[in-house]
Specification:
Number of strands: 6
Order of helices and strands: HHEEHHHEHEEHE
Distance between the termini: 43 Å
Largest sheet: 3 strands, antiparallel
Helix content: 55-70%
Structural class: alpha+beta
Number of helices: 7
């Protein structure tokens, strides 16, 4: 493959990364605003406290600023399970946040595959139109993965805005809610309906996670519901799947 072709491919992929980053940024702003607005209205109605657009704008601006900084680095803050072997066949499971350059990794993966298609096409004498068809089919096949990543990012942003809305409203406790079906990860199922201090609740936003945190102050203060000391759960090793 000649140098000019390589440069053109690199330019196309760089433009693709920029366009994806821009789309994610716009999406982050829209979702953060809607989630923060909905959360503060909900809390205001329950407690008759003042709901202000200034709070929503402040939460949105802070989330978008941090998210854009991550996108410029080629990724975002992702949630991962943490495991501690307790012996006797049991594992202590908790969560953490880690910056993952997944957008850069995704682009590198595309770059390698596009280069392969071009190099093999040139070697085999494939006509440009046939090569274009192969590229079209390749990118069509990546749509599902891209859509899944977008859904996960949207869920993380919405939950972050919700938590920031709780902080602004002085919420102290939150309850962990799963989708309660067969697709729920074992570690998530073990947290279902448990209540946590807001500042020690499990991080929400693992890949394809559908769990949410909801306010639980009433359950704690009025009904005396128990509150967990941290986000950890203990499971048998054979219950824990690779992704939690």
């Amino acid at each position: 493959m000649d140098k000019q072709t390589k440069t053109e491919i690199q330019t196309i992929l760089d433009d693709w990364i920029k366009s994806v980053g821009l789309a994610l940024s716009v999406n982050a702003e829209d979702i953060a605003y809607m989630s923060a607005s909905s959360t503060l209205k909900e809390i205001s109605a329950m407690r008759r406290t003042q709901y202000t657009k200034a709070k929503v704008d402040g939460i949105t601006d802070a989330i978008v600023k941090e998210y854009n900084a991550g996108i410029k680095r080629g990724g975002s803050w992702c949630v991962e399970p943490v495991y501690e072997d307790l012996g006797n066949g049991f594992v202590k499971c908790s969560t953490k946040q880690r910056f993952v350059p997944w957008l850069n990794d995704f682009a590198d993966e595309h770059r390698e595959e596009v280069m392969r298609i071009f190099i093999e096409g040139e070697r085999e004498g494939v006509y440009p139109l046939e090569m274009a068809k192969q590229l079209e089919e390749y990118f069509e096949g990546t749509k599902h993965r891209a859509q899944t990543a977008a859904r996960t990012e949207s869920q993380k942003i919405a939950q972050t805005a919700r938590i920031e809305g709780y902080k602004a409203s002085k919420v102290k406790s939150v309850q962990y809610i799963t989708a309660a079906d067969e697709k729920v990860r074992p570690t998530h199922a073990a947290r279902h309906l448990k209540i946590y201090p807001l500042n020690k609740a499990p991080w929400i936003g693992e890949y394809q996670c559908r769990c949410i945190l909801t306010e639980a102050d009433f359950a704690v203060e009025e009904a005396g519901a128990p509150v967990e000391k941290d986000d950890s759960v203990i499971l048998a090793k054979n219950e824990v799947t690779p992704d939690g």
